[in-house]
Amino acid sequence: MHVKSKKISHYEVLLRMQDIDGTVLSPADFIPAAEHTGLIHAIDHMVLRKAIAQVAEIYQAGFQVNFSINLSAHAFNDPELLPILKAELALHQMEPACVMFEITETAALEDLPGARGLMVEIKELGCGFVLDDFGVGFSSFYYLRELPVDVVKIDGSFIRNLSENSDDLILVNALCSVARGFGKKITAEFVESAEILSLIEKMDIDYAQGYYIGKPAPASQFLMK
What we know:
Elements: E1 10-12, E2 17-18, E3 24-25, H1 27-37, H2 40-60, E4 66-70, H3 81-91, E5 99-104, H4 105-110, H5 112-125, E6 128-134, H6 140-146, E7 151-154, H7 156-159, H8 166-181, E8 185-188, H9 194-202, E9 207-208, H10 219-224
Parallel strand pairs: 1-4, 4-5, 5-6, 6-7, 7-8, 8-9
Antiparallel strand pairs: 2-3
């Protein structure tokens, strides 16, 4: 949600898997196995195709929103990713600006030159980038300088107790100051109360994400609204 206007501008694409007994599994339950078996590229491709098709359907239903898609660390050594992205955008006649990609420090660390190269190519198409988990690693500021990101997402561990912890307030203010100095937009995740929303508004943070704003739900529910 854009903090000042209170309008929803982005939806993060979340991946879940339904087990044979109906249990819904989070990525932590199956992504390590996918990486170990070499299926991670196929998952990246599936998410990319489904997300672009879904945002196109939402646009056709009359809603103007953007999707934010997480990329795995393995995406940066995948020669098929960029051609698939180009083909799907063309197939659904979608503006590239409607899609943003989220990358963590950990993913960038795997292959910094490769990450930067692919990001530049994707940005040349018109898509955007978010540096996720900002502030949680020792290299956050280095990656902010080295990678062509548009938005930083402050890690939720600094946000969730913001209304009760003065140390977190100091840290978030410092992170925001650096991000603004580099000309980046700022998102706070784990915004779970009116008090936290009020605090990040006072800090001039651009976007809020969290259960106070909206909880994860199937995309079909969005289209039924």
